[in-house]
């Protein structure tokens, strides 16, 4: 039967497949609370997208989610009613179209036409007219022109301007500025207007500061691997197409991206995917000096197990044992998977790290990589910046303090504890450490900087904060505490 009718002589054009996949992934993230990396990887596998199609789909998803708040500010000026009154499906289509128009090398006519076609297929002909009209309005200005139109003056309100120009919520920028030691209200003399989207024309003194950090958060991260010592090494990963990492002796980087699972060492569990910052904090704990026994290590908050895999491999070299604790059963299974290729009798316990089932002072080294806001990994989790709130940070604080207190109690006298977060927010880092140590007289903070040999820009200590714009890592924080 023909799909033509007297009122529709031409058949409806089919939507672009890659854009359709990207839209469905975005809907999973915004409507169902999914994680972009997991949803996207699954979709790419199921739809068998690879090469240029996979790269295009990835940029559509990550870019749209990363710049969501900025695009909403532009759309609010282009739609005649509040964005809150739009159906979520329609708003996601408008965001996806806006990203193609403003930050991708897609012809404006093609971008609008393809999004109109996708709108018809996904939510019906009735909405396609609005999508066409709104995206044509968006296409009339460049990204820089839109920022000039919507954002407050950089001179009068620097942070408000950066929130639009750099696509970060204001509260996150304020926390980053505090962690960097910058005066939030300060504006470089003579500066105003808009930074280029690429960030390439910043003044030298700005490259390591707040704007450099925000730009780094908006860049796609490299795929970093860890060679678990004793069962793999960096040379094996390099032979498989990676290049040696910059800081960690166990790191290698897949410069061109691609599926790390194609590498035998990764597929077998002898190596894994792990940010170099995560490797560095685990190695720092493993190399801190302690006297006498050094065979019993604890990972108090182990899931999903990337650090557990590296620690187990390292303690194996000392004929020791790792105990990994995780409260959620499915995450405990992920920990076991990360340990599957590591020899030794390592333990994975399903339990609450704040309620130890082992005697006090049982371990020589303890890692407390506590649950946190994840603001240090915004490069990898583009949706997190819009999903997290200041209330999340406040709600996590009691748990973080309880876990650190439990970690210190679990360490033997002379043993060491690494308090770690993937967040630079001051309320999740030094504030937690200070609050816990103020209540105890049997632990002290030590200078962790010597445990990061060759790594520059570690600050005044004694704790260490890594940064995407300075070190190319996630913004990992470590405080080294010794049980006295």
UniProtKB/TrEMBL annotation:
* Residue stretches making up the SAM-dependent MTase RsmB/NOP-type domain: 196-484
Q: Which GO terms describe its biological process?
A: regulation of DNA-templated transcription; RNA methylation
What is a GO molecular function of this protein?
RNA methyltransferase activity
**Which residues make up the binding site for S-adenosyl-L-methionine?**
301-307, 326, 352, 369
Its domain of life?
Answer: Bacteria
Entry function: May act as RNA methyltransferase.
- Family membership noted in the UniProt record: Belongs to the class I-like SAM-binding methyltransferase superfamily. RsmB/NOP family.
Protein name (record): rRNA cytosine-C5-methyltransferase
Instruction: Tell me what organism the protein belongs to.
Output: Kribbella pittospori
Q: What is the lineage of its organism?
A: Bacteria, Bacillati, Actinomycetota, Actinomycetes, Propionibacteriales
């Amino acid at each position: 039967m023909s799909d033509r009718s007297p009122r529709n002589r031409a058949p409806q054009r089919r939507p672009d497949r890659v854009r359709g996949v990207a839209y469905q992934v975005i809907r999973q993230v915004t409507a169902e609370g999914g994680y972009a990396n997991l949803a996207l990887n699954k979709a790419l596998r199921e739809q068998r997208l690879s090469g240029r199609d996979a790269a295009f789909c990835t940029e559509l998803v990550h870019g749209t989610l990363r710049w969501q708040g900025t695009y909403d500010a532009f759309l609010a000026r282009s739609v005649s009613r509040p964005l809150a009154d739009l159906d979520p499906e329609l708003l996601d289509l408008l965001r996806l179209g806006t990203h193609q128009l403003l930050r991708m090398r897609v012809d404006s006519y093609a971008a609008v036409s393809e999004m109109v076609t996708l709108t018809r297929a996904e939510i019906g002909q009735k909405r396609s007219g609005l999508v066409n009209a709104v995206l044509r309005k968006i296409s009339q200005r460049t990204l820089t022109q839109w920022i000039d139109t919507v954002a407050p003056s950089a001179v009068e309100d620097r942070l408000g301007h950066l929130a639009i120009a750099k696509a970060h919520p204001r509260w996150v920028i304020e926390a980053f500025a505090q962690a960097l030691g910058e005066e939030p209200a300060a504006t470089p003399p003579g500066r105003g207007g808009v930074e280029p989207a690429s960030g390439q024309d910043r003044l030298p003194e700005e490259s390591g500061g707040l704007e450099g950090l925000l730009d780094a958060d908006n860049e796609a991260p490299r795929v970093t691997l860890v060679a678990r010592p004793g069962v793999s090494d960096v040379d094996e990963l390099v032979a498989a197409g990676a290049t040696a990492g910059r800081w960690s002796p166990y790191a290698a980087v897949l410069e061109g991206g691609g599926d790390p699972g194609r590498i035998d060492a990764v597929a077998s569990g002898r190596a894994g995917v792990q940010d170099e910052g995560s490797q560095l904090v685990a190695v720092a704990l493993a190399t801190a000096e302690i006297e006498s026994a050094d065979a019993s290590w604890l990972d108090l908050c182990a899931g999903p197990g990337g650090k557990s895999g590296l620690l187990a491999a390292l303690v194996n070299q000392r004929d020791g044992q790792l105990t990994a604790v995780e409260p959620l059963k499915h995450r405990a299974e992920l920990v076991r998977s990360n340990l599957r290729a590591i020899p030794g009798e390592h333990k994975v316990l399903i339990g609450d790290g704040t309620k130890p089932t082992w005697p006090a002072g049982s371990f020589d080294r303890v890692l407390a990589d506590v649950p946190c806001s994840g603001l240090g990994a915004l490069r990898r989790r583009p949706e997190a910046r819009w999903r997290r709130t200041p209330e999340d940070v406040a709600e996590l604080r009691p748990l973080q303090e309880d876990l650190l207190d439990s970690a210190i109690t679990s360490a033997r006298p002379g043993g060491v504890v690494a308090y770690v977060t993937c967040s630079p927010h001051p309320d999740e880092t030094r504030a937690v450490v200070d609050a816990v140590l103020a209540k105890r007289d049997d632990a002290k903070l030590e200078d962790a900087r010597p445990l990061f040999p060759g790594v520059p820009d570690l600050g005044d200590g004694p704790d260490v904060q890594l940064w995407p714009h300075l070190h190319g890592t996630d913004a990992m924080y470590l405080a080294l505490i010794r049980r006295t």
